[in-house]
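Hi R.,

As promised on Friday, here is the backbone we talked about, encoded as structure tokens. Could you run it through your design pipeline when you get a chance and send me back a sequence?
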């Protein structure tokens, strides 16, 4: 089964050092939640995020939402031929269960992620839909144990979607960055067997996910 990791994803709860910032407290009053219970989102917390460490790669949980919708609504996933993982910027890992129907609405998705952070897992009818655990990217790769790990990044070797898909076997792992700007950290890069650039221009992560998985589907089903 091929795997995909949305790596270093811009998905996290509001860090403690921002809890008392006006941008955070006003949002919490509106949502009737505590700062420790909400996702960091630069749409609402831009003022609080200014100057924070690694600012350009944080506060975009919508990127994860788009990527998961692309990965979890295709035949490859529906036929249990795809395992989906989210590795976050603060070294947590979300494992997506089989045939999970994720909310199309971002507001509902954010609520689901906040529940996952609170409870550690989301279940329905005895099935674990989402689970959360502390794990580095390297530890996740060890757990998946793929035959090859292929990173997709604009600074990689020039390739195409078709060539990237053909480089995969059904035991390979694709890695796409789940952040708005920047590159993979060295700790991630050292676990990648190759890094490919599938387009001449930088593209949004969900586009790379959708097009690459479609090309891989063609090698399986067509």
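Update: got your reply. Pasting your designed sequence below so it's all in one thread:
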């Amino acid at each position: 089964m091929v795997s995909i990791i949305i790596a270093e994803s811009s998905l996290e709860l509001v860090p403690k050092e921002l809890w008392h910032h006006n941008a955070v407290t006003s949002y919490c009053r509106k949502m009737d939640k505590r700062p420790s219970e909400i996702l960091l989102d630069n749409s609402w917390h831009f003022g609080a995020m200014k100057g924070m460490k690694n600012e350009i790669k944080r506060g975009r949980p919508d990127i994860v939402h788009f990527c998961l919708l692309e990965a979890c609504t295709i035949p490859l996933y529906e036929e249990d031929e795809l395992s989906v993982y989210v590795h976050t910027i603060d070294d947590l890992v979300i494992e997506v269960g089989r045939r999970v129907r994720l909310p199309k609405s971002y507001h509902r998705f954010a609520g689901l992620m906040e529940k996952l952070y609170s409870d550690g897992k989301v279940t329905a009818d005895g099935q674990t839909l989402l689970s959360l655990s502390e794990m580095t990217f390297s530890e996740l790769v060890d757990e998946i144990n793929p035959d090859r790990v292929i990173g997709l990044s604009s600074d990689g070797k020039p390739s195409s979607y078709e060539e990237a898909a053909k480089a995969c076997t059904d035991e390979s792992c694709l890695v796409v960055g789940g952040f708005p700007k920047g590159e993979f950290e060295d700790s991630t890069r050292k676990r990648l067997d190759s890094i490919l650039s599938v387009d001449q221009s930088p593209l949004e992560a969900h586009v790379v996910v959708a097009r690459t998985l479609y090309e891989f589907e063609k090698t399986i089903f067509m």
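One thing I noticed while checking it: The longest strand covers residues 149-158.

Thanks again,
M.
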